[in-house]
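Hey Z.,

So I finally got round to the shikimate-3-phosphate thing we talked about over coffee. Here's the setup:
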Amino acid sequence: MSTDLRFVVRPGGRLQGDIRVPGDKSISHRSIMLGSIAEGITHVDGFLEGEDALATLRAFRAMGVEIEGPDAGRVVIHGVGMHGLQPPDAPLDLGNSGTSMRLLAGLLAGQGFEVTLIGDDSLSRRPMKRVTEPLALMGAEINTTPKGTAPLMIRPVDGLRGIDYVMPVASAQVKSCLLLAGLYAEGETWVTEPAPTRDHTERMLQGFGYEVMIEGPRRGVRGGGKLVACDIDVPADISSAAFFLVGASITEGSDLILRHVGMNPTRDGVINILRQMGADIEVSNERVVGGEPVADLRVRSAPLRGIRIPEDQVPLAIDEFPALFVAAACAEGETVLTGAEELRVKESDRIQVMADGLKALGVQAEPTPDGIVIQGGPIGGGRVDSHGDHRIAMAFAMAGLRASGEIEITDCANVNTSFPGFADLAAATGLNLEVAHV
Ligand code: S3P
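And the result:
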């Protein structure tokens, strides 16, 4: 095992300051993918220099795309056009990144070369049939392990054909995968979502001049078009802001400003849920930047109360539940989450791992098949295993603000996948956090 990186959080502190968290992960991935297959030069600002988005960037470099940067969030992509990607010399290693693997499966299914996608232990356990099955319906040839997991071996085929697919899970990764495959398919490719999920792919395709057809819950593209390079300004990631929204909400005397946060309505569930719990979050300076809504947020501490989380908010806050569970632990009364079985197949089983961690700190947390029941109450000190899941590590770091003793969080290196600089930024705003290399 590589050296463990641990967070040690001492009790006390409060969050204050005026900060901008790093760029949106979902948008950063998509900027590289679409910029690479566009015609012309795409300039990206605010790119997330985290391991996940860098895995996507390296994959396209390995397929012959010239990409400059990242340099302080600036990336310049020399697009090769729809058919300009080259076969890579080796399997594409996508590390911990589910978004890279699922979206690339779609984008690469219709290329004229063979390519294999691999990932780390966590990614190699995650379900890929949700993308390989509908891609097979389009005529793609992709091999997985018998369990339906990576490595994905993608073979060239004569051509893909459009399908009309009703998605069994509300997943932006599945939707995006199929739309990207649809760019290369004959005819129209349609996907129907059981519930709205993040729509960055649709917005960005339109930004690159590609028509996306929208009919109620259906999204469609017609194959055979082209993308034209454009400039992209990546907003700060609301999923990274979420840790600070929770940290400031639960700690008396906190008053924090978060700048330029992406406020796409398919991503703002965390704000709706926290407000329903009583959080004091002010939204100002709302504007649209490069097709994505953005705003500044001011969050001040407030007494939180437990709620039954509305199921329609679940896909809109899907990555924010580790942080929200910490908010629930600090709330008065009971918080009940249902309809969130997807949390069990994220970077870790986030229901089980969060329940175990909360219990280790003396919080009553009962996992259910599709959610959790958390009783608000005092948080003690203790040791928590993040299972290499970035969002679990950051959520428990914020719990330290309300804990009565020291919290030690193990296996934190993957925080770098989505939030490089988290520890320094958290410490600068008032969290008593130290990083230990063990
Ligand atoms: C993402 C979609 C979500 C989310 C992930 C990023 C994306 O996954 O959890 O962090 O960029 O499309 P699902 O589509 O599996 O819900």
